[in-house]
Each structure stands twice: as structure tokens, then as C-alpha cells.
Known about the structure:
- The chain is α+β, with helices and mostly antiparallel strands.
- The chain has one domain: Alpha-Beta Plaits, CATH 3.30.70.20.
- The chain contains two helices and four strands.
- The protein has helices at 15-19, 45-49, and strands at 3-5, 25-27, 33-35, 55-57.
- The strands form two sheets. Strands 1-4 form a two-stranded antiparallel ribbon. Strands 2-3 form a two-stranded antiparallel ribbon.
- GO terms for molecular function: 4 iron, 4 sulfur cluster binding; electron transfer activity; iron ion binding; oxidoreductase activity.
- Residues 1-30, 31-58 form the 4Fe-4S ferredoxin-type domain.
Amino acid sequence: MVAIVDPDECxxxxxxxxxxxxxxxxxxxxxxxxxxxxxxxxxxxxxxxxxTEAISMx
Length: 58
């Protein structure tokens, strides 16, 4: 499994970045969370931290 961002729901607000223990998430210039699948450990912390429920595990 890996965390996936729904670009229609993501606000680029950043709680997921702060919650990620391995720094796998950045916010791009379009205010969209980008998750590096090579760094993601599938912990789900970002899913819990996202206030808009834009991140899911797939």
C-alpha cells in the first residue's frame, strides 16, 4: 500500500507534511501534497492528519 493524494480535495495546508515521520511529503508550487512512494512507509499518519480527507491508502 501507498498513500495517494486526491488533487481535488488537497488544499496544500501542510499537516500531512508535519505528520510524516520519514519526510516523504512535500507541498508543490500548485499547493498540492506530493508523496514520494520510495520514501513512504505506509504508516498512515498523513491520512489521520489530513483535515480534508484528501489522502488515502491504496
